[in-house]
Design a protein that fits this description.
371 residues, alpha/beta, 6-stranded mixed sheet
Length: 371
């Protein structure tokens, strides 16, 4: 199933302050997360009777219990400078833009009260259309009044726009006062934020596959699915390593994701940072438009782009019939145009558990002779 992203959509690690596992009166020191300068989820211990937020029946025993990994509530965590507290495992979750996939994979689809999204489907092979059935989906973010009426336990988002007060939405502090916990991964603090710090902007630009794995791990702690999160992270890491091992020696393939309408009539810019750049490099590609002074996305006209040739063109949306030909016609001197090498690889710009499978699709686009 493909993931289609609107070109104008969201272009689009956390410190746990309370012990996530063990007995209620115990504490655990946070381990330093590799390469990010942030704190990772705390160590886990077998859960005692007093630590369990709820005691499942024998028939409902989860993989997490089998592994002895349970989250202790109340749980207080901090992301992007804001603390939130959950009194128990969230039973009602509103998802803005991303991170619905891990919840579905972990069997928590029933907890998703609403999903605000501009995408469809998933590149993760363990999900199908049936997994999305019954989820209330909208492209309109709930108003202040609507979100208070919904009163979810937790809001999960990939964008700071989720609580943009200037746009008429409740800020994080107001949401916390209303008893609604909020989670935006540390590596995404600058996403759609009007005034990110230089550090936040740099973190977003350099966000890669490893940060996605950390985010999934943290979300697993928050929703009491630690063992399942560890299993998913292991699966993703193994698949990515398999794809990377296939990359042949030699010069990298010059490739970039161009942004424009689906009819290919014009090009507005290029993705120049974020997870897609990490994946491009991992599978033997090279984006010549990336530079230290450019952020996650850079505006370019076709006239500015044409002087920097690409071997393969990627587009950020599946082209309408004839759209590929239109794009190739804008760059007649590029090797990509001469050989007709253009395509769309779903799920590269974001936090999908399907990233390794998107990486495999990209590899096959770059190296068809190796596929």
């Amino acid at each position: 199933m493909s993931r289609t992203r609107l070109i104008t959509a969201i272009a689009l690690p956390m410190m746990l302050l309370a012990a996530a596992c063990g007995s209620d009166d115990s504490s655990a020191e946070d381990d330093a997360a590799p390469d990010t300068g942030s704190e990772a989820a705390p160590e886990t211990e077998p859960a005692s009777d007093s630590a369990s937020a709820s005691e499942p029946t024998d028939d409902e025993e989860s993989g997490a219990e089998a592994e002895g990994l349970r989250t202790t509530y109340p749980l207080t965590f901090e992301t992007c400078g804001v603390e939130s507290t959950l009194e128990g495992p969230p039973e009602s979750i509103v998802v803005y833009y991303e991170f619905e996939e891990p919840l579905l994979i972990w069997g928590l689809g029933d907890t998703i009260q609403s999903w605000v999204t501009f995408v469809e489907g998933s590149t993760y092979p363990g999900l199908s259309d049936a997994d999305y059935e019954g989820i209330s989906t909208t492209t309109d973010q709930p108003s202040r009044e609507a979100i208070l009426e919904m009163s979810p336990d937790l809001i999960v988002t990939a964008s700071d726009f989720a609580w943009n007060e200037e746009a008429g939405f409740l800020g994080r502090e107001d949401l916390n006062e209303a008893g609604i916990a909020t989670w935006l991964p540390e590596s995404l603090c600058a996403q759609d934020k009007s005034d990110p710090t230089p550090e936040e902007a740099e973190t977003l630009k350099n966000r890669g596959f490893d940060q996605v794995l950390e985010d999934i791990t943290e979300l697993g702690v928050i929703v009491d699915r630690q063992a399942e999160a560890a299993e998913l992270v292991d699966e993703m890491s193994t698949k990515m390593a398999e794809v990377e091992a296939r990359v042949p020696e030699g010069d990298p393939v010059r490739v970039a994701i161009l942004v424009g309408p689906a009819d290919g009539s014009e090009i507005n810019g290029v993705y120049t940072g974020g997870t897609n750049e990490d994946i491009i490099e991992r599978v033997g590609g090279f984006n010549p438009f990336v530079s230290p002074d450019r952020g996650q996305y850079t505006s370019f006209s076709a006239e500015e782009l044409v002087v920097t040739p690409l071997d393969v063109i990627m587009t950020d949306a599946t082209m309408d019939p004839g759209g590929n030909d239109s794009v190739l016609g804008l760059f007649p001197t590029w090797p990509a145009a001469e050989q007709g090498r253009i395509g769309n690889v779903a799920g590269l710009v974001g936090s999908s558990p399907g990233l390794p499978w998107s990486a495999e699709q990209l590899f096959e686009l770059l190296y068809p002779e190796e596929s």
